[in-house]
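Bug #77: duplicate submission created two jobs. Keeping one. Sequence:
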Amino acid sequence: MISSKDIPEKNKREIRQLCRFGCVICGCPLYQYDHIEGRSGPDPHRTDNLVLLCPNHHSMKTNELITKSEIRKFRDAAGRRPSTAWQDLFVEPRHLDIGSNKCFATDYFFIVTGRHWLGAKVLGGNALLQGRITDKNGRPLVQIIDGEISFLSENWDVEWTGKEITVKNAPGDILIRLRLDAESKRFELRGRPPLYDDSRLDIRDDGIFYRGNLLARNCTTINVRCGLLVVEKYSDPMPSAVGFFNRYKQEENFALAVGPDGAGFAWSNDFLKALP
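Kept job's structure:
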């Protein structure tokens, strides 16, 4: 992976604004910094040599399926384009589907054991994605800083296909699948993220499960700061209000106005381990 750490922060801010905080071709809010003419020359990090591209279009540019002149045309037009559907993803409260459950959160979409998390922060009046996904040993696999996505391991299967990022533990074994659906203005979370031991949550189309136990299906929470939260122990600090805390077999339930600093769905690992 080519790092962007050598690009001055001032230049990053300028190019994010110029590119309207997304890929200049499709507008996707998960992007990478690309040097249009490469990194040679006396000042390769100058803003007129930088552009934001999503992983798909970055790969196409690297494989010369998109020319440099085409990239420059897209970049020059980015500042004049109208607001895109991608930007509507960040209108608060943000809509998160966790399996078959719905949550409307403001800051963090999910925090699982502190190892896997995704959220958004406001920077200069614009919401930028932040996040991290790790393996069960805490080694980072995917990192998102101010919208810039980095794949940090060559030994794991990380796929980016259009609107969806999938991190796999093995063929058919999905750790995290995150889908950004601009048309319906929602984030969709699926997968089997590892917890503090060898056990894992199971977030499926028909609900959230743990070792075969149904935790929540077709439930809804609104007005919360974090959609999904898993902590290690019951005694660990928790938000002041939680819609569904250490509950299971929840179906078709609704939690109204949980609180702006609260969580929608939360479990402690010791509670989950005690389930039959």
